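Module 6 notes. Inverse folding takes a fixed backbone as the condition and produces residue identities as the prediction. Think of it as a translation problem where the source language is geometry and the target language is the twenty amino acids. Below is one complete input and output pair. Work through it position by position during the lab.
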């Protein structure tokens, strides 16, 4: 075979091989290649579910594939988190999480084997204020009155009860922290999600719930079904000026907290997938309807974060919440 023909044959083979390699790499990196599951670690009806169903349709348009909300409650959200870790690292299952599930659950539940570092925060979605909710027939109308009542009840051997979405959840820590800083014994009552906890608060089965604040709480309050003693803010919320900030109390001026929600993938998810998902989330959060609906649910939409900023926020949050858990001597059970 003449030299020129051999060279042409080699060039053609190289070109064809390169095309096959490119096609293969494209097939591996094309994202999303199918509908994306947005896994919510609590039952339908709670604040987490509202966030997901506010975001998913627009996020699906940004991605070019439907985003399907899937609710899976239990074990402070760790069941859903573990399900994400059991799936392929291809970004087709996204976890809607917070410090509750990914930072605190591994500290509180011995059955949880994953670490916070097994997940990667792609972008925050929103921040929510925390409401100090009480059953409607609790004979108090302010935080200070509540503390006096709770202290008396404890002295009489009838400590008040506080709800949470599970052992080791942020709301469990808040209740335990409240008990510690006030020196008042209180009894923890865990639930599988915010909705069942609220149902028992409404029916008077539990005394208080330090809960993510939503518009529905305003309606329940107006209907006389619950009381809102305060928001755990330094200042009153513009959209709820009639609700005192915790800083206005005499005994708990510095008991200010909020919590954020973000979208996570497995740590080893390819960078190209993370970049594509980050871009889609960023675009979603600029949508006026999404922002308005989040705000209507008393959520503050997250500002735009770079991938690096999101990583730092998660690292900082992990350190913060681990410190709170240590301060109350949280033990894995």
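Target side of the pair, the amino acids:
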């Amino acid at each position: 075979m003449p030299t020129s023909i051999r060279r042409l044959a080699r060039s053609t083979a190289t070109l064809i091989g390169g095309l096959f390699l490119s096609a293969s790499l494209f097939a591996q990196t094309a994202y999303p290649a199918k509908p994306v599951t947005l896994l919510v670690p609590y039952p339908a009806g709670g604040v987490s579910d509202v966030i997901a169903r506010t975001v998913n349709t627009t996020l699906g348009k940004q991605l070019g594939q439907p985003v399907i909300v899937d609710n899976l409650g239990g074990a402070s959200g760790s069941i859903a988190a573990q399900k994400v870790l059991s799936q392929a690292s291809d970004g087709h299952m996204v976890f809607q999480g917070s410090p509750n599930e990914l930072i605190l659950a591994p500290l509180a539940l011995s059955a949880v084997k994953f670490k916070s570092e097994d997940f990667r925060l792609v972008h925050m979605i929103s921040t929510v204020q925390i409401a100090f909710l009480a059953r409607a027939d609790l004979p108090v109308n302010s935080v200070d009155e509540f503390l006096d009542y709770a202290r008396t009840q404890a002295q009489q051997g009838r400590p008040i009860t506080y709800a949470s979405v599970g052992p080791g959840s942020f709301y469990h820590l808040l209740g335990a922290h409240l008990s510690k800083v006030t020196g008042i014994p209180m009894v923890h009552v865990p639930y599988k999600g915010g909705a069942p906890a609220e149902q028992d608060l409404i029916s008077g089965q539990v005394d208080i719930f330090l809960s993510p604040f939503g518009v529905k709480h305003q309606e329940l309050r107006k209907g006389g079904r619950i009381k809102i003693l305060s928001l755990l803010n330094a200042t009153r919320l513009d959209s709820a000026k009639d609700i005192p900030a915790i800083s206005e109390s005499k005994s708990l001026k510095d008991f200010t907290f909020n919590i954020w929600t973000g979208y996570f993938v497995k740590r080893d998810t390819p960078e190209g997938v993370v970049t594509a998902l980050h871009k889609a989330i960023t675009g979603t959060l600029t949508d006026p309807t999404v922002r308005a609906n989040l705000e209507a649910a008393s959520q503050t939409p997250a500002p735009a974060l770079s991938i690096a900023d999101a990583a730092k926020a998660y690292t900082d949050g992990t350190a913060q919440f681990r410190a709170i858990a240590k301060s109350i001597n949280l033990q894995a059970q």
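Reference fact for the lab report: The first strand starts at residue 36 and ends at 40.
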